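Query structure, 241 C-alpha cells:
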C-alpha cells in the first residue's frame, strides 16, 4: 500500500509491479505489486501486511515497531517494563502527539478560520446590503412614479425585492460551488511531502453560510421597505431632471 503522493511521484497505480531495493543487511532486491493507494494526512508511507513482508524478505516473524493499547491504570507498570528492554530504541504516546497537535497546529488553524469567517461575514453582509441600497437608489425615480400613479408601498417594494430575491437564488448556489472549488485549490496548493490538508467541508458550513446571506438579505429587504415608505416623491421626481 502506497501513499497517494508517492504513487503520483512514481506514476504508479493499482496492479503495477514495484522493485524494492533493501538498503540494509544483505541488500536484497525484491518485487511487489501495488494493491492499494492510501490518503495520508501526515507524511508518506509504504505499508505491507507483516506476514507478507516477512515472506517477501525471506525471514522469520520479526518486527521492529509495535503499537500497543494499554490500560491507563497500568501505564506506569508498562513504562517501567519498557525501560528495562535493552534493544528498545524509543517510544511515543499517540494521545500526547494528538494533544500537542491540537494545542499548536490545531489552535493556529482554528484562530485563522475564525478570523477568515469574521471577514467573510462582514463581506457577505456588506455586499448584500450595498446591492440593495444601490438598486433602491437607481430605481428611486421609477419607484416614486409608481407611488404617484396609485401603487401602494408594499406593491412598490415588491417590485425591487423580487429582483433581489432572484439574484439571491442565483448567487447562493453559485457561491457555494465556487467556494468549494476555491477551498480545494487552496488545499491542493498547500500540500507538501510531510503535511496534507484534505478539502473536506462539513455540510453545516453550507447551511451557516446560506443562512448568513439570507439573513443579510432579509435585513436589506426591511430597509428597502422603510425607504420606499418614506420616499419624498416630489424631490425624487425633480432629481430626475
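Result returned for the query:
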Amino acid at each position: 500500500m502506497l501513499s497517494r503522493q508517492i504513487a503520483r511521484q512514481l506514476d504508479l497505480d493499482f496492479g503495477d509491479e514495484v522493485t524494492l531495493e533493501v538498503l540494509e543487511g544483505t541488500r536484497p532486491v525484491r518485487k511487489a505489486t501495488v494493491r492499494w493507494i492510501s490518503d495520508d494526512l501526515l507524511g508518506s508511507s509504504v505499508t505491507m501486511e507483516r506476514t507478507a513482508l516477512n515472506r517477501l524478505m525471506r525471514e522469520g516473524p520479526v518486527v521492529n515497531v509495535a503499537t500497543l493499547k494499554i490500560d491507563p491504570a497500568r501505564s506506569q507498570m508498562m513504562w517501567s517494563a519498557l525501560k528495562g528492554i535493552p534493544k528498545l530504541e524509543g517510544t511515543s504516546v499517540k494521545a500526547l502527539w494528538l494533544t500537542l497537535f491540537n494545542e499548536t497546529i490545531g489552535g493556529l488553524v482554528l484562530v485563522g478560520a475564525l478570523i477568515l469567517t469574521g471577514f467573510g461575514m462582514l463581506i457577505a453582509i456588506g455586499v448584500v446590503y450595498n446591492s440593495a441600497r444601490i438598486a433602491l437608489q437607481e430605481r428611486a425615480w421609477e419607484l416614486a412614479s409608481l407611488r404617484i400613479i396609485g401603487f401602494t408601498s408594499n406593491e412598490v417594494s415588491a417590485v425591487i425585492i423580487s429582483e433581489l430575491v432572484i439574484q439571491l437564488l442565483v448567487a447562493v448556489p453559485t457561491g457555494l460551488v465556487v467556494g468549494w472549488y476555491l477551498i480545494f485549490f487552496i488545499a491542493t496548493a498547500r500540500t507538501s511531502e510531510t503535511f496534507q490538508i484534505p478539502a473536506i467541508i462539513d455540510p453545516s458550513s453550507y447551511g451557516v453560510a446560506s443562512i448568513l446571506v439570507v439573513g443579510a438579505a432579509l435585513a436589506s429587504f426591511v430597509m428597502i421597505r422603510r425607504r420606499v415608505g418614506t420616499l419624498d416623491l416630489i424631490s425624487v421626481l425633480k432629481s430626475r431632471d
